[in-house]
């Protein structure tokens, strides 16, 4: 299995990161995409990838870090990826949940990172919260060029189909295991397995039965189990296909 979205560099893991990596290997999770979202975490992802052989780092600027200095942050990102090996651009995207103060700047910065991913021939990892239509309006302009992931997808099935048509994959995380998560389960049931990925977004969004506690990459196995249950197919099939999807997308 591959956890396609992890923040195992976070301080929440400083006390037991070695044990977390060990649990990954014990659960047949041999690759983890370590997702950066600002200069500091982009740097941390690189450091961790040098220390642990299962980590594959990315770099991006998260919309929550977008402000009036977005151009400076973008140029910093470009310089960073010129000097470091990354497997994707992102996490980036749009987030109107906490604030809409820099809404237009978010859109510009997101589109710049899409263009960068196309230029560098890298997948893009897209964060979208309370901004589904604006996100789609931007990505659809790059249909046929863009490749990447709608990370921890929380939108409707109808919109999921549209994102897939554009060329993106749908990634499911802990929320698909929640009892009341009707739409994520509907998305899981109906989107073809060949277009799905699994993730944790750890330390956030821990799956059942760990909901509300610290998440970790080894729990991606629980997401895999839930996808198999919803689709009424063997666990091994979900494991095999989602792993193949991730390996091809990230070229790992």
What top-tier CATH class fits best?
A: Alpha Beta
The proportion of residues in beta strands is 5-15%
Name the overall outline. Answer: globular
Looking across the biggest beta sheet, what order are the strands in? 4-5-6-7-8
Count of structural domains: 1
What integer value in Å does the Rg equal? 17 Å
What labels describe this entry?
252 residues, alpha/beta, TIM Barrel, five-stranded parallel sheet, 8 strands, 43% helix
Task: Please provide a written account of the structure.
This protein is α/β, with parallel strands linked by helices and about 250 residues long. About 45% of the residues lie in helices and about 15% in strands. It has helices at about 15-25, 40-50, 70-85, 105-120, 130-140, 155-165, 180-190, 220-230, 235-250, and strands at about 1-5, 30-35, 55, 90-95, 125-130, 150, 170, 195-200. Strand 7 (about 170), helix 7 (about 180-190) and strand 8 (about 195-200) form a beta-alpha-beta unit. Helix 3 packs parallel to helix 4 and helix 4 (about 105-120) runs parallel beside helix 5. The chain is globular and about 45 Å long. The mean pLDDT is about 95.
